[in-house]
Structure formats: C-alpha cells, structure tokens
UniProtKB/TrEMBL annotation:
<dbReference type="InterPro" id="IPR026866">
    <property type="entry name" value="CR006_AAA"/>
</dbReference>
<dbReference type="Pfam" id="PF13166">
    <property type="entry name" value="AAA_13"/>
</dbReference>
<dbReference type="InterPro" id="IPR027417">
    <property type="entry name" value="P-loop_NTPase"/>
</dbReference>
<protein>
    <submittedName>
        <fullName>Anticodon nuclease</fullName>
    </submittedName>
</protein>
<feature type="domain" description="Protein CR006 P-loop">
    <location>
        <begin position="183"/>
        <end position="340"/>
    </location>
</feature>
Length: 378
C-alpha cells in the first residue's frame, strides 16, 4: 500500500531495529526521507536556537546532501589566490573539531579515500579549511580548489570521525563515567548515500569500515542507512549479517510512484537475491516504454543495465553489447548520461525517435544476451 514519506518515517521508527538498510534509485526520495525522519524524531521549534543548539539536546545525527550544505566555498573572486572551504559550524562540527581536536584524524581518513599528498589545513578557529598538494622534493601547490568528489569525501571524513567518537563514548554504559555528556540523548544516526563520488575499491572499504563502526556500537543507538549503490548495499548487508531465524532483516527497497506516493518493501538477502537489481532496472524500463514515459534518466538506467550485463558476461566494455552501429548508439547514450558540467537545459527531453531507441536497445539486450522471456501463458 502506498504511503507518504512521513508515514514511511513513522514505519522506520516503529520498527525499533538497531540497523535498517534501504536501497533506492537516485531521485526516489532518500534525502527527503532523511528530512522527514529528522523532523519526526526532533521537530523544529520556535525556541530551537536557544534550547536545541546545545549538543546535549540532540536526538538524531544525520548525513545527507543537507549536511554538505554546512560547507561552502569562498573562491576569493577578487584575487583568485586563496580559495577555501568555509565551515558553517553547528553543535556537531564544533564538538569534533574544537572540543575533540579531530582535525588530524579527519585528515588521515580524507587522504585514505583520496590521495595521501592532498592535505587539508584548518584555520585556527576551525571556520575554514584550505587544501594543498604535496608534489615531492619539498614542493607544494598551495590553496588549490579540490574537486566536488574530493569535497564530498572530506565532508564524509568529518562525519566519520564524529561517528567513531560518538560510538566510543556511548559504549561506556555508565553515563557518569563518560568524558562528555554530549551524546547522552542521541537516539538515531541517519546516513544518506555517502558513496556518490567513490570508486569501487574505496566504496567497498567505506562500507566495511562503516559496518565495523555500527557493529562496535554496544548502546541503544539505532542506525538507518540509505543508498543508490547496489554494491554498497550488498557489502553493508553482508558485513552487518542482519540475520534472524535464517532470514535477513532490516533491508528495504524504497519505491516512488507516479502519484508522488511511496512504498517501503521488506527484502530478504542482498540485492542479487532480494530485488534482483538488474531485473528491477529492466522492469522499470519496460514500464516506461509501455506507458510512453521515457525520460532522460531512463538512458542512465539503460546504460547501467548494459554495464551490468557486460560485467557478468566478461566483456571489457559495455558498448560491445550494442547493435551493429555501435558508435551511433554509444554517442547518444553518452550524451544523455554524461556527468559533465553542462546545465540540464543543454540536453533536451528525448525525442520520439530517441525514446524508440531505448526500446530498440532494451529489446536487443533481451533478445541476444540470455534474458529469460515468458512465452505464451507459461
């Protein structure tokens, strides 16, 4: 039965599980769900600035696109010499940076996921951070502006350091024996898709590390993790071993319907066993074609399906699975799925001919590469 995101947030809270793992396609509503859940656990009030700014009052810690908004660039437009990443401080960033002095640990985590020569430099009051690149032979390229992916990795490193400290404190059973009372009221950690800019090796490593942190938690703290990555989902699922009576629990598929409602379906096993990610993509494409509702993002799904099929069959490049005029089809798909900096307006909505191409390429994949297809009434 379809629900609103508020109702799904209530469903997650009522489940009362230590870990709940959710898979959803990009654009389905994961980040909006994190906001709905935060509002459910700790609704804003008119006196929030006065009463809720203290860390000790916080009930939920969440990482999402909104977390990244706490960090923004000062590009030094007048001199173009000293760009820096500004930190819009809140109770959590103040605690991890100012009170706990975790800047070196953050640097270590960040360099682990990016490059050991890429070094962040915090200002004395932790209100900004600049970056340099060590080139060897004591040469240093200072005040560089890092990529969007590296920026996301840096922000996750701050959050990851905070999680480690928080779990460590709450693992001390007697509140009076903790070094801080900052987390005594914390009930939930909501992590929304931290892997958008990681390669597969680091994605797996992040999933293993996050699972290790969650498993080390001995308190009543509860974790909700959402992702669009089937690989990240699978690694977390298997590392956390969410088993009871032979079944995997706490795993879901979040779906969004045309009328703007949602559903959260319980799934058992990883993505390959529970919701067969590649078959889900295939079904989504078939539905869009049948209803004549092919949009730009369906080209991304089509490419994803080709990539997964090619990987499974051992082809070095997914384009090798395309029909005879491979370059023509490849160019068109790349045009719609490119992550370039062009604005959305640079690529128009698919034409009728391009929509027909999606059907042609999907049928080609199904007819030639071993997809089972129902015949007659069987």
């Amino acid at each position: 039965m379809s629900k609103t995101l508020k109702e799904i947030a209530q469903q997650l809270r009522a489940a009362n599980k230590k870990v709940q793992l959710i898979y959803a396609f990009n654009g389905t509503g994961k980040t909006r769900l994190s906001r709905e859940f935060k509002e459910l656990i700790a609704p804003k009030t008119d006196t929030e600035d006065a009463l809720q700014s203290a860390l000790t009052q916080k009930k939920i810690l969440y990482y999402s696109a909104f977390t990244e908004d706490l960090f923004y660039w000062d590009n030094d437009l007048q001199l173009d010499a000293e760009p820096k990443l500004k930190i819009h401080t809140n109770a959590f960033t103040r605690w991890v940076l100012e009170e706990q002095g975790q800047d070196q640990n953050i640097t270590t985590i960040f360099q682990h996921y990016t490059n050991e020569k890429l070094t962040p430099h915090f200002s004395s009051d932790f209100s900004a951070v600049s970056f340099s690149f060590e080139r060897g032979n004591y040469e240093q390229e200072s005040n560089i502006k890092i990529s969007k992916g590296e920026e996301s990795n840096f922000i996750w490193s701050v959050f990851h350091s905070l999680i480690e400290q928080m779990i460590s404190e709450l693992n001390i059973a007697e509140a009076s024996e903790r070094s801080t009372d900052a987390f005594n009221n914390l009930e939930y950690v909501f992590i929304d898709d931290p892997v958008s800019s990681l390669d597969e090796n680091h994605l797996i490593e992040l999933a293993v590390n996050l699972a290790g942190s969650i498993k080390s938690s001995q308190s009543d703290l509860k974790f909700i993790v959402t992702t669009h990555s089937p690989l990240f989902y699978n690694v977390l699922h298997n590392e956390l071993d969410l088993s009871k009576n032979g079944k995997k629990e706490g795993c879901y598929l979040l779906e969004c319907f045309e009328d703007g409602t949602f559903d959260l379906n319980v799934k058992y096993g990883d993505s390959n066993k529970s919701f067969s990610y590649h078959l889900h993509i295939k079904q989504t494409l078939e539905q869009a074609i049948t209803e004549n509702k092919v949009e730009k993002y369906h080209f991304t799904l089509l490419r994803n399906l080709y990539e997964k099929t090619a990987s499974f069959l051992g082809y070095p490049k997914w384009a090798e699975l395309l029909p005879d005029d491979k370059q023509l089809y490849l160019s068109r798909i790349i045009n719609f799925t490119s992550h370039s900096t062009l604005s959305n307006e640079a690529i128009a909505e698919p034409t009728p001919a391009e929509k027909a191409m999606v059907k042609l390429l999907l049928d080609h994949l199904k007819d030639n590469y071993g997809f089972w297809q129902q015949v007659g009434n069987e």
